[in-house]
Amino acid sequence: MIAAQIVPTPVGALALLSREGVVVAAGFTADPEEMFARLTPALRAEGLEVVDDLGPATQAVRAYLDGDLEALDAVPVSQPGTPTRRRLHAALREVKAGTTVSYAELAARAGLPRTAARAAGSACAQNLIAPFVPCHRVLPSTGGYGGYLYGTPVKEWLLTHESRRTANAG
């Protein structure tokens, strides 16, 4: 069974979906079914149950919102993808809070050629586990915020939250 919880955040509800303590989906929506629909058929076959508390994942989100920007890093995650996409998602998890990278930089960090910037953009677009896999920390090299599945205001809020906290810590 896939367990789901809705956690309130300053930028709206965050749906968390977990299977045996591993986050399999997370996104800024009040409807866990929206995230559930993006899972693989095998996971969807397990069914969905909304619960009151997912334990460590929920605690990590609350700690992150309270200023512990590394709290999400310790939560195990799992999402499907090609070997290239998995390398990109792993590289994303290494981008520290308060910093950003371009799509080309993300590709380079994943050990992929600079021409793989398009693959990096695709990996961000297909990311099922925001903000645990922090695609909000990737910005276009041409400037601006670029796209974000949950809207630019959410991306802006996450980046501002992280930059304020890292500035205060320094």
Q: Topology, please?
A:
Layout: E1 2-9, E2 12-19, E3 22-27, H1 32-36, H2 41-44, E4 48-50, H3 56-65, H4 83-94, H5 103-109, H6 117-125, H7 152-169
Parallel strand pairs: 1-4
Antiparallel strand pairs: 1-2, 2-3
Helix pairs in contact: 4-6, 5-6
Adjacency order of strands in the biggest sheet: 3-2-1-4
Average residue pLDDT: 93
The assembly state of the depicted protein chains is single chain
Count of helical regions: 7
Which sheet architecture does the biggest sheet show?
4 strands, mixed
CATH class group of the largest domain: Mainly Alpha
CATH superfamily of the largest domain: Winged helix-like DNA-binding domain superfamily/Winged helix DNA-binding domain
- Category from helices, strands and their pairing: alpha+beta
- How would you spell out the order of helices and strands? EEEHHEHHHHH
CATH topology of the largest domain: Arc Repressor Mutant, subunit A
Number of DSSP-assigned strands = 4
Shape: globular
pLDDT < 50 stretches? none
What proportion of the residues form beta strands (DSSP E)?
5-15%
Keywords: DNA damage, DNA repair, Methyltransferase, Transferase
InterPro entries: MethylDNA_cys_MeTrfase_AS, MethylDNA_cys_MeTrfase_DNA-bd, MethylDNA_cys_MeTrfase_DNAb, WH-like_DNA-bd_sf
GO molecular function: methylated-DNA-[protein]-cysteine S-methyltransferase activity
Catalytic activity: a 4-O-methyl-thymidine in DNA + L-cysteinyl-[protein] = a thymidine in DNA + S-methyl-L-cysteinyl-[protein]; a 6-O-methyl-2'-deoxyguanosine in DNA + L-cysteinyl-[protein] = S-methyl-L-cysteinyl-[protein] + a 2'-deoxyguanosine in DNA
